[in-house]
Design brief:
Length: 323
């Protein structure tokens, strides 16, 4: 069987070579690649299929985890129009532009922030701005801004003076500084933020630029739990997508606690990244750097630990810049 398969692959390689293309199988020049397509003038074309419903593998008889197709049906039920789809957890998930997920990082969608960004080089050392309640709040920068060499973005870390901030005030502070409230959409970015928090000795809780909101998809229809990948209409405020982590059992990146987001009492619309020092609950809840959905109105988190000294103030604001 192995000899027959090898002969078949060699035959394919020979045929492609006659057309100035190569199918390289375990080639010594590419030790980490099992199969490489090599051509300077042509690309790889995914199979084009007509998907009726994202919860049905049809027209494929039996879709496998991680399988890729190019859907040609603009009005696929539960989907997001024409484009590349991956079969994950018994449903087709669209990837790329105008999608909530991505396989290969594309350009950020048109900015949904409602204001123009500045550069991290313009980030002030401290600011005073008017809060959502009309009060003056002071925010001071912690150390110098840092650049992530992988995505090219810069991050500045600020601390609200004397109090915590709710989600809206954190958003307004980032706007005043000229960036936006940090959006974490990949494991690499999560690890980068964790490393910076640890190196700076920062243990406060911080809001993420990820929240439940009604945006529209490519057909200008409201986004619902049926056509979003993480469930309850959770989106980065910038319109970015969440990365699909490739593998035999691919999954969409997030760092939520187990059973989160749960929208407890239908009142939790924003996402919080936890620091340390607020205890650890059952099943790993409230552990460092995990995410949870909470009311956008709170400025501190006590949770199960109201009798402890640690208050869990949400005083840290991480401001992200595209440059």
């Amino acid at each position: 069987m192995k000899k027959s398969l090898l002969l078949l692959l060699l035959t394919i390689q020979f045929v492609f070579a006659q057309k100035k293309a190569e199918v390289l199988v375990n080639h010594p020049n590419y030790p980490s690649s099992a199969l490489t397509l090599n051509h300077s003038e042509k690309g790889f074309l995914l199979p084009k299929v007509y998907l009726e419903n994202v919860t049905n593998s049809s027209p494929l008889k039996q879709a496998q985890e991680g399988m890729l197709v190019y859907n040609t049906h603009q009005d696929v039920i539960g989907g997001e129009g024409v484009g590349i789809y991956m079969w994950i957890n018994n449903r087709w998930i669209r990837s790329g532009e105008n999608s909530n997920t991505y396989l290969i990082k594309d350009q950020k969608q048109s900015l949904r922030l409602g204001y123009n960004q500045l550069s991290a080089s313009n980030a002030p050392a401290d600011i005073t701005f008017k809060s959502s309640a009309g009060e003056l709040l002071n925010v001071n920068r912690i150390d110098q801004c840092v650049k992530n060499q992988v995505n090219g973005h810069s991050y500045c870390f600020y601390e609200a003076v004397n109090n915590g901030v709710n989600w809206q005030d954190a958003f307004l502070a980032a706007k005043e500084i000229g960036g936006y409230l940090v959006t974490i959409t990949s494991r690499e970015e999560q690890k980068f933020i964790e490393k910076e928090l640890a190196s700076k000795g920062l243990a406060q809780n911080t809001w993420l630029g990820i929240r439940k909101a009604i945006f529209t998809n490519v057909k200008n229809q409201p986004v619902t739990p049926e056509n979003t990948s993480l469930g309850a209409t959770i989106h980065p405020i910038t319109g970015e997508s969440f990365q699909v982590e490739w593998g035999n059992t691919p999954k969409i990146f997030h760092n939520f606690y187990n059973l989160e987001p749960d929208n407890n009492l239908n009142s939790e619309g924003c996402v919080l990244l936890f620091g340390e020092g607020i205890g650890s609950g059952v099943n790993g809840y409230y552990t460092q750097y995990k995410w949870g959905d909470y009311s956008c109105k709170i400025n501190k988190h006590l949770g199960q630990f109201a009798d402890q000294e640690a208050t869990g103030d949400i005083s840290l604001i991480i401001v992200e810049f595209d440059k």
